[in-house]
Write a structure and sequence with these properties.
Elements: E1 5-6, E2 10-15, H1 23-32, E3 36-43, H2 47-53, H3 63-70, E4 75-81, H4 85-93, H5 98-104, H6 109-113, E5 122-124, H7 128-138, E6 147-148
Antiparallel strand pairs: 1-6, 2-4, 2-5, 3-4
Helix pairs in contact: 2-3
Bound molecules: ribavirin triphosphate and magnesium ion.
Ribavirin triphosphate binds at residues 57, 62, 66, 96, 117-118, 120, 123-124, 126.
Length: 156
């Protein structure tokens, strides 16, 4: 019998340069919350790559310091998979400002590992379109296919 395809939503997560020394704890947090890490790479982005990645913020006051921060050291980029992963991962990050995160979401990653409005430890895609773009940005060769329940067992 034809099995329906199961689509497991993917999102792009980054451990930023300020939190790279805490990456073991952050990776444990990710797995403890039921995300599968489908792809993972450690890299040191150039300022040009950071500008491309955060192009939506070009022209904003904080753009130059954001580029300088994100290119200041190694990062870990990951593809996470889970049902509703985009929204759930954003929830676990907490608000953009680490100060605000400590006030309103004390259990969030940015509350625990972030420092200020900019050095906030972690990134997450904010939409389906954004996730597709960001996954392609870091993992251009990845084959992105839906996981089909029919892959597990075939009935004839
Ligand atoms: P992200 O894209 O990194 O997951 O963060 P976000 O959606 O929560 O926030 P966004 O508005 O997209 O900003 C991107 C990153 O820019 C830095 N930022 N600095 N006022 C500031 O100094 C300021 N505002 C934003 C942060 O690193 C933020 O995560
Ligand atoms: Mg953003």
């Amino acid at each position: 019998m034809e099995q329906p395809a199961i689509f497991v939503e993917r999102t792009l997560a980054i451990i930023k340069p300020d939190a790279i020394d805490q990456s073991a704890a952050i990776l444990r947090f990710i797995e403890d919350h039921g995300f599968a890490i489908l792809q993972q790479r450690r890299l040191h982005m150039t300022p040009e790559q950071c500008s491309d990645f955060y192009a939506e913020h070009y022209g904003k006051m904080f753009f130059p310091s954001l580029v300088s921060f994100m290119s200041s050291g190694p990062i870990i980029a990951m593809v996470l998979a889970k049902e509703n992963s985009i929204l759930e991962w954003r929830d676990l990050l907490g608000p953009t400002s680490s100060h605000r995160a400590r006030e309103t979401h004390p259990e969030s990653l940015r509350a625990i590992y972030g420092t200020d409005d900019q050095r906030n430890a972690v990134h997450g895609s904010d939409s389906q379109k954004g996730a597709e773009r960001e996954i392609r940005f870091f993992f251009p060769d990845a084959v992105v296919e839906p996981i089909s329940s029919g892959d597990q067992a075939t009935d004839y």
